[in-house]
Amino acid sequence: MNESIRQVGYIGLGIMGAAMASNLAKAGFALTVWNRTRSKCKPFAKQGATVADSPADLAAKGPDVICLNVTDTADVEQVLFGDDGVVAGAKPGLIVVDHSTISPMATREFACKLAGHDITLVDAPVSGGDVGAREGTLSIMVGGPDDAVQRLQPMFEAVGKTISHLGESGTGQACKACNQIAVVCNLMGVCEAMAMAKKTGLDVSKMLEAIAGGAAGSWQLANLGPRIAKGDFDPGFMIDLVLKDLGIVDDTARQQRLPLAGTSTAEGYFRAVAAAGGGKLGTQAMAKALENLGAVDLK
Amino acid sequence: MNESIRQVGYIGLGIMGAAMASNLAKAGFALTVWNRTRSKCKPFAKQGATVADSPADLAAKGPDVICLNVTDTADVEQVLFGDDGVVAGAKPGLIVVDHSTISPMATREFACKLAGHDITLVDAPVSGGDVGAREGTLSIMVGGPDDAVQRLQPMFEAVGKTISHLGESGTGQACKACNQIAVVCNLMGVCEAMAMAKKTGLDVSKMLEAIAGGAAGSWQLANLGPRIAKGDFDPGFMIDLVLKDLGIVDDTARQQRLPLAGTSTAEGYFRAVAAAGGGKLGTQAMAKALENLGAVDLK
Prior knowledge:
Chains A, B: It is an enzyme of class 1 (oxidoreductase). The structure is a homodimer. Chain A is an alpha/beta fold.
C-alpha cells in the first residue's frame, strides 16, 4: 500500500484539469488520459501520454491513481459508476482523487460505494483558479483516509502549494464550500463599497487604494476591485461555475438547517447577472447586478 | 496660509483620540486639550498640554488646527456650533480636522457653515483601530481643500501611515462608509464559513488555515477568524460602534437610492447580537448571531 505512485490516470482535461495534468507529467508521473471531448487529449498524446477509450478502459490499464476534474456531482457519478465508468474497469487498491467541486454528502456516498469495490476515494477540490493551476500554486483541500492522503502527497505537491488534510471523506468538499462562502461575501463587500463610492462621487480607484491595506482588505478587493473599476469582466472564474458551487453550498446548508443570509444575498446578485446573460462573465461581474438594479454605473 | 502648524487643539480623548493626540505631542506639536469627561485631560496636562474649559475656550487660545475625535454626527455639531462650541471662540483662518466617523452629507453642511466664519473643515476619519492609533499606523481618509490638506500632511504623518486625499469636503467620510461596507461583508463571509465548517464537522481552525492564503483571504479572516474559533469576543472594535457607522452607511445609501443588500444583511446580524446584550462585544461576535438563530455553536 505504501509504494510510491507512478502511473496516473487523468479524467477531465478542461482548463483546470489540463494544467494540473501537465504539472503531473512535468513531475515525472506517467499519464493515461481520457476526456469526453477527445480532441483535448491530443496535446498529452503528443507528449507521450496514453489515451484511453473510456473511463473503464483507463481504469483497466491499471494506474495507481485516477484523478477526476469534471464539473458537477452528476458528472463524477457518471464517470465513476456509469456504463464504461471507472468501477467497470478498476482493479482493487485503486485510489480515486476527485479534484472537482461537488457535494460533500454525495462524496461520502460515493466513497462508501467505492469502498465496496476496494477503491479509495479522496476528495481534493482546489482553489486558486487557472493561474494557480498553471503555476502549481493551488490550495488543495483534502478529505480521506490518512494512509491514502500520505501516499498522494508527492502528487499534491506537484500541482499545489497549500495542501490541507481536513479529515475523513467529504471534508475537503466541505472546506471548499466554506471557501466559496467567504469568497462571495468578500466580493459582495467590494461591489457594494464600489457602488457607494460611485454614488457619492468618489474616485473609485482611489477609494480602493485607500482601504486596501486595512481592515477592509481582501484578495477579492486587491485582485477584482481594479478589474471592476476598469470594466474588465473577463472570466478568471465564471459566474455559471460559482452558481454551480453555490448550489452545493445551498444544498449542504439546507440539509444542515443552516441559515446563510449573506451567502444567499450574494447568490441573488450572481443570479441577476446570469439572468441578464452574464453567466460566462467573471465573478467580478457581480458588480453589474448593482447596475441592473438601476443603482449605479460602475464603469 | 502655508506656514507650518505648531499649535494644535484636541477635542475628544477617548481610546482613539488619546492615542492620536499622544502621537502628535511626541512629534512636537504643542497641544491644548478638551474632553467632556475632564479627568481624561490629566495625563496630557502632566506632559505639558494646556487644558481648556470648553471648545470655545480652546478655540479662543488661537491654535492653528483643532482636531475632533468624538462619537457621532450630533457630537460634532454640538462641539462646533453649540453654546461654548468652537465657532463661539474661533479666530479666522482656523482649520478643523474631524477624525470622527460621521455622515458625509452632514460634513458638507458643516463645511459650508464653517466657511462662513472663515474656518476650513477637513474630514479625516481613520481605520486601523486602537492598535493602529497607538502605533501611528492608521489609514486616514481625507476630504477637503488641497491647500489645507497639504498643510496638514506633517500632522497626518504623525498619526497614520496610509494617507489618502479623496477629494473635496465629505469624501473622506464617504470613503470611510465604503470601508465599513467592505469590512462587514468580509466578516459576514468569515462567520458564515465558520458556521458551515462547524455544522459539517470540520476542524474550524484547520478550515481557516486552509483557505486563508487564497481567494477567500482577508484581514477579517486572518485577524478575527482565530478569535472567533477560540471564543474570544473582546472588542477591538465594538458592535455598538459599527452599528453607529452602519447607520451612517444606511442614511447615505437611502439618500442615494442605493440598495446594499449584503451590508443590510450584515447589519441584521449585528443588531441581533446587540439586541441579545452583546453591543459592547467586538465585531467578531457577529458569529453569535448564527448561534442565536439556533444554527450552530461556534465555540
